[in-house]
Amino acid sequence: MKWFAVQEEKIAIAGRPVRVLRPETKTDKAMVFYHGWSSSAALNVFRGKILAAHGYVVLVPEAVHHGERGTLDYEDGTVVAAHMFSVIDRSAREFSDLKDWLKKEGCSRILVTGHSMGGFTAARVFAAYTDLTACVNLNGCFAFHDAAEGLFAKAGPEQEKALRDAFVPYETDPQEQTEHLVNRPILLINGAADAVIDPDWQKAFYENLREKYEDPDRIRRIRMENQGHFVTTNMLEELLAFARTYMEDPA
């Protein structure tokens, strides 16, 4: 099915469901968009089409326990605490298959992005793969440790125990891998009124990392006033503007 010169296809990569959105003109530029907790690849196809319409091959992978890959009680705080970081970890470990597929498609420039849990995933992937071109984090967080501490503070005793038991290992936290991030194009966008992921959880991370950049304009942090935990057209506009800067003519 075509939508504004965008071709949509549902495929399997390494046996896992992925939505592919292709622009009309062949390109070597790609984006991987990770959906958030309780969402699915299907529910993010429209966003993928917007991105693809601007000249990018877009992959929207299905996270484990979501969509066609199963379900959980997403509203149960203890379930969230027990599973969220493991879902992020699983998605990050599956990225190599997406990358291999994109390389076979001729895509040499790859931007990773995602919303909420998907933003955490994009951060984890970007820190692990230093050959990726850019990262745009929407209402997520690069500072896993600081985010976890914030979540611990908000959780009840049972949820806190589940969070601490499931927390991502130290060595996979992007916050502890700044040597893999410095000087690379990163855009952090958060709603200033986000009651789910506090935008200040990654404030110190951003400020400390930015000081290490030779060109500090290559890392940006945007707080969108009066905005909560959702993706807006303004966010997508900022994402695409950032992509045009670093995907068209890589520095």
What does this structure look like?
With 251 residues, this protein is α/β, with parallel strands linked by helices. The chain has one domain (2-247): Rossmann fold, CATH 3.40.50. The protein is built from 7 helices and 9 strands. It has helices at residues 45-52, 77-104, 117-128, 144-154, 157-166, 203-210, 233-247, and strands at residues 2-3, 6-13, 16-23, 29-34, 57-61, 109-115, 134-138, 186-191, 219-224. The protein has a 9-stranded mixed sheet with strand order 1-2-3-5-4-6-7-8-9, with helices on both faces. β1 (2-3) and β2 (6-13) form a beta hairpin. The chain is globular, with a radius of gyration of 17 Å. The protein starts with a strand and ends with a helix. The mean pLDDT is 92.
